[in-house]
User: Fold this.
Amino acid sequence: MVKAGNMKETAPKRKTDELFLIPGIQPRLYSATESRQVFDQIDLDKNGCLDESDIRNILLVTGQTATDEEIREMIRMVDHDGSGLVTFEEFNILCSQPEAVFQNPDIEKAASTGNPSPSPSPILNTSQVIPAEYRELLLAKFATIDFDDLGYLTLPGFLQLLSRPESRHLKRMFDLLTQSTGKLSTEALLSGLIYLQSDQERRKFLFDLFDFNESGMLERDELMSVVQLSKNVHSHDSEAFIYDVLNLPRGAPVSSGKFQTLFDVCPEFVFAPLQELEEIYNNLTRN
Assistant:
């Protein structure tokens, strides 16, 4: 790393910490406002922090891949409080005071030119979320339902797009996609499809979908709402069995981690809603 003091005399003077880049994210140091803009683009579920799912999704839509362990390591390098999540404060430190591992040895050339770098551009390219040949068909169907040309769909239009009747969890899906604004734009729809495009992401989205009170845990009634979608499962018998499998007192709140074990231990209890999410994704992106 070449510091400002080692540059030629004609080079503009810059602070040492201005000679850093965050590879793949920014061409220069960003202000706190710009860091917030980038953070919000990565925080796709808008819960105020970055988790493994956010990192995996943003890598996916930018054409990159990483193993689960590599993603966890990315988080550990920035997660100063050991929570397993990256807060905006931690992300902003990464952008403004990056450690040596994030230093870019080629920054001297950019710093010596004195040319201003552009503001952050959107990271999420929604054209990569679904195959290009189906994207236009989906947008055309959206436009057909949006016959008033408002640029958005309300809940009835969303249900028409899905060709499904209203239910508590589909209304919850609409609220998640619209951030409770009641207006679903094409960009919000395309961005939301990220959560439906793989079995792994659908499993995680399913938890959020039934966390109706947004507590970060599934209460008993929320958990049983998932189970009751599986018509061949008797909810009374299954309730005791599920809590035994999860090694939890009957009626105790269920964490996301515990919930994920159901897919491996007793998938019959969560198969129906998972299949529904897969069908919704396929109908939106293939027909």
